[in-house]
Fold each of these.
Amino acid sequence: MTTFKSTHHTARKMVIKLGGSTLEGLNETFFRNFKALQDQGFQLIITHGGGPAINRELAAAGIVSQTVNGLRVTSEEMIGIVQSTLIGKVNPSLVHELHSANISAIGLNGFDGGLLECEFLDYENYAYVGEVKRVNINMLNSLTEAGIVPVIACIGATKDGQALNINGDTVASEIALAVEAECLLLVTDVAGIRIQDEYQTEVTPRLIEQWIEEGHIYGGMIPKVQGALNCLKAGIPSVQIVNEALTGTTILSEELVK
């Protein structure tokens, strides 16, 4: 993936990915801790999907969706619904919540200023699903340096203007890599990784692989940690799996632990 070159001074940046049930109504603790991160000097960027909302709209239209390798296969009929749901409903609702908490934010998607230039990932298997080829980091840097939080819906655009659905974790990691974020926060409905009824505060990829092998990490946590490990391998220094209070488990690359 390539990026637009930035002319701005590198600042401390953090990308926060909101997904699943966390989008259905954030609590006061989230906004308090969000502001605390800003007070610590972090320039924050939010990315989001909207699985539950999309599922409701597809069901209302009588459309059955399926996933392949964790990605929602998105037909031509579905991409319009996914686009209108994320850009027209989920994104403005989230921006409104932030504004109500006195946090300056602006809603964006891949079309805005060529933010997420994409290509088809694999049309035969996934149809209208995209992979990110270029991120307009100048626009993101201009907004964050002005104290405005970009809130990015996971819709990309091809060079000829075709909307493509992009996996939420993929957008979060690509944005984090492009802006050279110090950390990526994956906000879920659990407070991190729990091993034998005890939440872990700091772990390494080696420990995670061991716990998966031993069966301590299982079910829905497996794709979450695998996504985190992919981000670390791609070059993000640390990834956190956290709850709405933004507390949970920090996964550090082996190099930082040594």
Note: The two ends are 29 Å apart (CA to CA).
Amino acid sequence: MKTNPGGQISPENMFGRDQVIADYWRILEGQGIYVNDLRRIGKTQIMIKMHAESPEGWMSVKADLGRCHSAAEFATRAFKDSADVLGGKSKTLRTMEKWVGKLGELEIAGVLKLPGQQDAAPWKEVLERTFADLEEAMKDMGCRMVFFWDELPFMIDNIVRKEGPETAMEVLDTLRSLAQDYDRVRLFLTGSIGLHHVLAELKEGGYIGTPLNRMSHCQPGPLDPEDARDLAEALIEGERLICDDPQALATHIAELTGNVAFYIHLLISRLPRDRSLTNEDAAHCFEVQLVSKALDWDLPHYRDRLPKYYGKKAMPAFHVLDALAPGIPMDFEKIRNALAAKTAYPEEDLRKLLELLCSDHYLVKGADGYVFYLEIVRRWWSLSRQS
């Protein structure tokens, strides 16, 4: 197996996600799923594997919603993907076909238009008719459809920017309604930024909806240590790296990278090929990479996103993360005292800030207090804040 950081990993080369995927299919029997976790954790790869290996009785569609910038583009994507997958089964979306005609020259600027008209077809009706048709088609075929839709929050944010918050609110409410009304159609949604950030902005404009309250909220997290070690060992062998104890080196690489498959691929791709490697070599290479200007590690994202999504809470968030960067768990009182040395910040606001940092997967709260969710992010944060 060769390293391929950030590239397409074939489903058969994915390590350690079989149980997670089995759990997700079990959940989908009863309800939709919203998966939110840090970027690079493997959400999209899980989705790709589930889409490629759908069990008997399921059909699926996969799309990146981050590419949609309007409600009409989104509705058109849902319709076209549904028509494509059913076309392979000699089925059609009957009501939609009567309404918009055959697929062909029916698009204008990437959205559907009605025959004889130049204006885009009403997006909500496109979605509702598509789902109604899918429900009937799935009933006839004795199976179910799941939409694997990646990066829902980005699409909602795009719609806010282009068409305004009212349309974004309507899209969310429509999705909630469709997920409730059609039992044979399931939604599997993901997000790298929490939808709560987008919802917070919408609620300032009066939105009171809870669009995902009937969906199961899931967080895959890093690989189990054994699976991370096995992945690292397979990559060490595939890249023909020289070392005396491949398993020991693989274990050390898994620990350094926090058992995240993407970072395992990336670190191994950077290791020297011209000498026998030790654990110390891997650790040195890792530290060098963390402070390098290489953009593919994508770690500055965790610093740069704070001003955008946290606003006035960004600076207190920086102070909290700085206090936890040494890696020593801290309870609420210790964090409050550390923050008080930097700035005056109300106690209840700090509680809400800690909740937000946990929701965004910067932190987790354990028995001993708060710590960074990912060790690699903590190590990068600590090193980057020293300069």
Note: The first strand starts at residue 33 and ends at 36.
